[in-house]
Design a protein that fits this description.
121 residues, alpha/beta, Rossmann fold, 5-stranded parallel sheet, globular
């Protein structure tokens, strides 16, 4: 199996920059965008995405709305979706998993934890 392709969706380009650099250093292939709408466009066109790192709090469409739409794309139903949230409050993890995320990580992202999730598939 080749490199895993990761789509990073975050409305803050600094977060994307940090994640891309971290993941590229670990030989992941990264694609990124700044909105859930854009992510859906990419996922409809690119069946080779293995993982979506999805910021849950974004303007317009948030991660909770985006997850079911991602899962509804025929080529993406088995794509791993990792919810990324800044508000690590009680119940957040459950809320993300209920929305359909496969895993959950809070910001600031613990790289080792993220790599564990990515590698554990």
């Amino acid at each position: 199996m080749g490199k895993k392709r990761v789509l990073i969706v975050d409305d803050d380009s600094r977060n994307i920059f940090a994640m891309v650099n971290t993941l590229k250093a670990k030989s992941y292939d990264c694609v990124s965008c700044l909105s859930a709408e854009e992510a859906l466009k990419i996922l409809r066109q690119d069946a080779s995405i293995d993982v979506v790192l999805l910021d849950m709090m974004m303007p317009e469409m948030d991660g909770y709305d985006a997850i079911p739409l991602i899962k509804a794309i025929p080529s993406q139903e088995s794509t791993l979706i990792i919810a990324v949230t800044a508000q690590a409050m009680a119940g957040d993890k459950e809320k993300c998993l209920q929305a359909g995320a496969d895993a959950y990580i809070s910001k600031p992202v613990d790289v080792d934890k993220l790599l564990q999730i990515l590698g554990g598939n």
